[in-house]
């Protein structure tokens, strides 16, 4: 069948370790036994809201209210509550001219406020030859910019990049990279805001594509694996489409919305459930598009690291492996918008 090339279990994805230049092997942190949620609350003007209390929140697991195991309001990234912003430049799914424009916009972001960054920032370059972290996280925008200017982003060299099989190649490489990233970040404490600057990888779903039972199981395993890995690594994923107004009104900017609902079983899965934008929204992040202001979009995403709330609940007792549970957080105050992870997979 056409999708036999899809990679789709997390162990397969995690093949190319991503590490800072010093490449020290950090100790792995034990996964949180609770379901931990990073919750962003904003007002109607999209400004983050501080000062909320535990009693203002209600967490619903499959529409049933849950007791909060822990609660903490975070109003600034500190040594005790670190939040790292990771900018990922995608040269696999974007053309060289687009990546060049991205670089200029990122340079503007790093130079804001005289180079004094609000959060520790690191930059990852994703090409089809390798994936590398430029520097360790730093708040020194000037130092980061100097190192950034010395880095040459590789050209896309996938042989069949313009055809269907090239699309499969890009999908495979993208999924391996995000799997590797979650594996590495899970070794580090604290929350991570990963801003993936890319039009997204090919979704490869449509009326002409039929999946075998084996392919459905493979894709479902990857959906479960990535959802769990992102949650345990405390990653909130953001997608910024660098094509801006060129992409405005196109199918790419809205098609992913067909796959946002959580997948309960293999026979309900599609390849589109692994789209970048889908993973971003389901992790509690944003999928931004139709704007040429990449600098502003990065700033918009990174401000979610300034003010947010950490909540946790006990996981539900599952009746079978990989049982999907939808999550919803409600605020007992009118006019506020809440954004967090939309679900998780429980185990017996």
UniProtKB/TrEMBL annotation:
<dbReference type="InterPro" id="IPR017802">
    <property type="entry name" value="VWFA-rel_acidobac-type"/>
</dbReference>
<protein>
    <submittedName>
        <fullName>VWFA-related protein</fullName>
    </submittedName>
</protein>
């Amino acid at each position: 069948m056409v999708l036999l090339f899809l990679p789709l279990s997390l162990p397969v994805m995690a093949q190319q370790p991503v590490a800072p230049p010093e490449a020290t092997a950090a100790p792995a942190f034990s996964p949180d036994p609770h379901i931990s949620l990073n919750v962003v609350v904003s007002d109607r003007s999209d400004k983050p809201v501080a000062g909320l209390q535990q009693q203002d929140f209600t967490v619903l697991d499959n529409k049933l209210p849950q007791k909060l195991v822990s609660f903490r309001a975070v109003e600034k990234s500190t040594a005790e509550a670190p939040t790292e912003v990771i900018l990922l430049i995608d040269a696999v799914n974007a053309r060289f001219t687009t990546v060049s424009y991205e670089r200029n916009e990122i340079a503007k972001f790093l130079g804001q406020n005289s180079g004094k960054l609000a959060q520790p920032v690191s930059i990852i370059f994703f090409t089809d030859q390798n994936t590398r972290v430029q520097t360790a996280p730093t708040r020194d925008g000037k130092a980061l910019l100097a190192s950034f200017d010395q880095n040459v982003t590789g050209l896309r060299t996938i042989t069949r990049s313009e055809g269907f099989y090239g699309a499969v190649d890009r999908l495979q490489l993208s999924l391996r990279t995000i799997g590797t990233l979650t594996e590495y970040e899970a070794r580090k404490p604290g929350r991570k805001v990963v801003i993936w600057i890319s039009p997204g990888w090919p979704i490869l779903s449509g009326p002409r594509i039929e999946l075998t039972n084996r392919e459905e199981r493979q894709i479902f395993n990857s959906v479960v694996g990535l959802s769990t890995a992102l949650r345990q690594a405390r990653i909130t994923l953001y997608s910024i489409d660098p094509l801006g107004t060129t992409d405005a009104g196109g199918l790419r900017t809205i098609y992913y919305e067909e796959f946002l609902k959580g997948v309960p079983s293999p026979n309900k899965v599609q390849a589109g459930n692994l789209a970048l934008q889908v993973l971003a929204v389901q992790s509690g992040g944003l999928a931004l598009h139709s704007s040429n202001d990449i600098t502003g979009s990065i700033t918009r995403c990174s401000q979610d690291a300034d003010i947010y709330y950490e909540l946790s609940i006990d996981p539900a007792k599952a009746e079978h492996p990989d049982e999907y549970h939808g999550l919803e957080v409600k605020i007992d105050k009118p006019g506020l918008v809440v954004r967090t992870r939309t679900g998780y997979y429980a185990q017996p």
